[in-house]
Write a structure and sequence with these properties.
This protein is of the alpha/beta class and 375 residues long. It has helices at residues 4-7, 20-31, 49-61, 69-74, 82-88, 106-115, 138-149, 169-172, 185-199, 205-214, 219-232, 246-253, 258-269, 273-285, 290-309, 314-317, 323-333, 339-354, 361-372; strands at residues 38-42, 95-99, 126-131, 155-161, 176-179, 201-202, 235-236, 241-243. Bound molecules: adenosine-5'-diphosphate (ADP), magnesium ion and zinc ion. Zinc ion (ZN) binds next to helix 5.
């Protein structure tokens, strides 16, 4: 089976999510037939840089580009012609992906220098995609600079990097630059929903939210995790479907879902010390990572505090939480009071101690007892 993240790589700009500005500018460039000869795609992992590089390769080479009105209208590759197909399948000889992380690109850039002099084998443009471009050596950058200064008309160079600040200004100033953003939990959840429907995967919204939140803004991380969960899961039905439950996700991540977190926060906000202590022990028994739990708890209480002092900020949390969860949080924010600020400080303190402690449960318990004991 093809890995989910490869199978669901967007093949149109329309399906590239959460990068509206990048999409807008590139579609417009396709429509007006004005592509740059060099691009820099920068931003966090799993947000669409490699995907976009291949989309650029397709709009440059799509056979309908000069013949078909739809290309000019939509600014999208047709995904139907021979060029689009070979690029989608990764078979195009003229689309050359270079991993600068391996051997810091020394041999690769030497080959590139040779290769740019030769016209494309079958496509209109030869497209070089240099991934992890910040890893290139000084010599490799210099060699690249020569090519950037006088690129043959049939060459497009695309640099992708997670660390834009490490690309020398001499290089980046000669490229058109795009900055990719981390994506929100809801954007990830929406794409995962699409995938599970197609793959006949049964999984709850709560579990999806947990997967998406753990991916920290990366589609790829979320999709890889889903893949991993599918491979562990039991098949259901006779059409290749599978079922994943919340416990599977929690166990795999060592991280509790929203409902458990919210229940626990309720004990704290209601000063129910007995229940709080009992729950911590259970959470430890179940093998959850307590430092992760404390981090999630701090984030939960921080959100409750923020909503207490500025209820309008719920709009900012809408993209990170499903509606039902946001409502729970809003209810909890009404219980938040000044004493809880000390609790929050205590938890932050406990978090920094427990990460290196042999007994991570103790700093957490101490923080909670100290804050709730006389309430
Ligand atoms: N903006 C996006 N919209 C939809 N899916 C995306 C997006 N970015 C990444 N993905 C998913 O993650 C996978 C990896 O994306 P990729 O473009 O390789 O990320 P990177 O920014 O690390 O180069 C894609 O195959 C796709 O499934
Ligand atoms: Mg990439
Ligand atoms: Zn095409």
């Amino acid at each position: 089976m093809l890995a989910i993240y490869r199978k669901y790589r967007p093949v149109t700009f329309e399906s590239l999510l959460g990068q509206d500005l990048v999409v807008k500018i590139l579609k417009e460039a396709a429509r007006s037939d004005r592509l740059a000869h060099a691009y820099l795609l920068a931003g966090p992992r799993g947000t669409g840089k490699t995907t976009t590089a291949r989309l650029i390769a397709k709009i440059a080479n799509c056979e309908t580009r000069s013949t078909d009105k739809t290309f000019k209208q939509k600014g999208e590759p047709c995904n139907n012609c021979n060029s689009c197909n070979t690029i989608n399948d990764g078979r195009a000889l003229d689309v050359i992906e270079i991993d600068a992380a391996s051997n810091r690109g020394i041999d690769e850039i030497r080959n590139l220098k040779e290769s740019v002099r030769v016209s494309p084998a079958s496509l209109r443009y030869k497209v070089f995609i240099i991934d992890e471009a910040h890893m290139l050596t000084k010599d490799a950058f210099n060699a690249l600079l020569k090519t950037l200064e006088e690129p043959p008309p049939y060459v497009i160079l695309i640099l992708a990097t997670t660390e834009a600040e490490k690309i020398p200004a001499t290089i980046s100033s000669r490229t058109q630059q795009f900055y990719f953003k981390k994506v929100s939990v809801n954007q990830i959840v929406n794409k995962l929903k699409d995938i599970i429907a197609k793959e006949k995967i049964k999984i709850s919204g709560e579990a999806l939210e947990l997967i998406a939140a753990s991916a920290e803004g990366s589609f790829r991380d979320a999709e890889s995790l889903l893949d991993q969960l599918v491979s562990f899961s039991l098949p259901v039905g006779n059409q290749g479907g599978s079922e994943i439950n919340l416990t599977d996700v929690e166990k795999t991540l060592g991280k509790v879902g929203f409902d458990k977190l919210s229940e626990f926060s309720g004990f704290l906000l209601n000063s129910n010390l007995e229940k709080a202590l009992e729950s911590i022990s259970q959470i430890e028994d179940h093998g959850f990572n307590l430092a992760q739990f404390t981090k999630d708890l701090i984030q939960y209480l921080r959100r409750a505090a923020v909503l207490k002092y500025n209820p309008d900020m719920k709009d900012m949390f809408k993209s990170e939480l499903m509606e039902e969860h946001l409502n729970k949080l809003i209810n909890h924010s009404k219980l938040f009071n000044e004493n809880h600020l000390d609790l929050l400080k205590g938890l932050i303190n406990a978090y920094s101690q427990m990460r290196y402690s042999q007994f991570p449960i103790i700093p957490l318990e101490v923080a909670i007892v100290e804050s709730l004991k006389d309430k």
